[in-house]
Amino acid sequence: MARKIVFLGPPGAGKGTQAVRLAQELSVPHIATGDLLRSEVQSETELGMKAQGYMDRGELVPDELVVAMIRERLQKASGFVLDGFPRNLNQAQRLSSVTEVERAVHLSLSREEIVRRLSARRLCPQCGHVYNLQASPPQKNEICDLCNTKLVQRNDDRPEVIGHRVDIYTREIKPVLEFYQKQSVLREVAALGSVDSVYRAVKAAVN
Ligand code: ADP
Ligand code: AMP
After folding, report:
1. Structural domain includes residue 88
2. Residue 72 has pLDDT above 90, yes or no
3. What are the start-end ranges of the E strands in the chain?
4. How many A from CA of 99 to the centre of ligand 1?
């Protein structure tokens, strides 16, 4: 089974949900650039302060900042599940100069379902667990099952930002898909259906 895996797909497709599970099963690190950047913002680091405006507007953080953030982690890793990177052709090319990619799994989902999932997404600010108020709600109203913390909605999951994020994704991802297609590592997975059924398709794609 492949151990150097990237997840591609629109915001809300379920990359994080699937990547956490796959990384656990493969015993490799789950590296999510969005999570890393949110943690930099929360800690008010120099990188976090540079990134915050872009993130709140639903735009991409400049490539050099994001590449610098993950380069070292990837150089050392004998396997990884990368989630949220690369997001444009330049990032894909930069990634290929750092490490090989054995599988690029592209999760696809309709715009209508993306908006539905993201509007109902809630995040635990303490442990990072992701919920969905419709599909996978916590047991107590908006409280994390794992650490009892009040859940929050991401700033960029507001309806006015979601559309902008999807537009940027649609514009930037085409050459990335072509890039991995040419290397014969691209696999398409329909992201509609239960988390378990999508996971079965993901497993088949990385085998
Ligand atoms: P991404 O990392 O691609 O932005 P997430 O994994 O955060 O997406 O998923 C987006 C939202 O959709 C979350 O609220 C998550 O709980 C929910 N979700 C993930 N997979 C499914 C699924 N197969 N069916 C319904 N909801 C899902
Ligand atoms: P995500 O959690 O993957 O939805 O990412 C949240 C936000 O972080 C994005 O909307 C971007 O502003 C920023 N971000 C995450 N990954 C990248 C990346 N690879 N390149 C540029 N910006 C990114």
Report:
1. yes
2. no
3. 4-8, 30-32, 80-83, 103-108, 121-123, 130-132, 186-190
4. 28
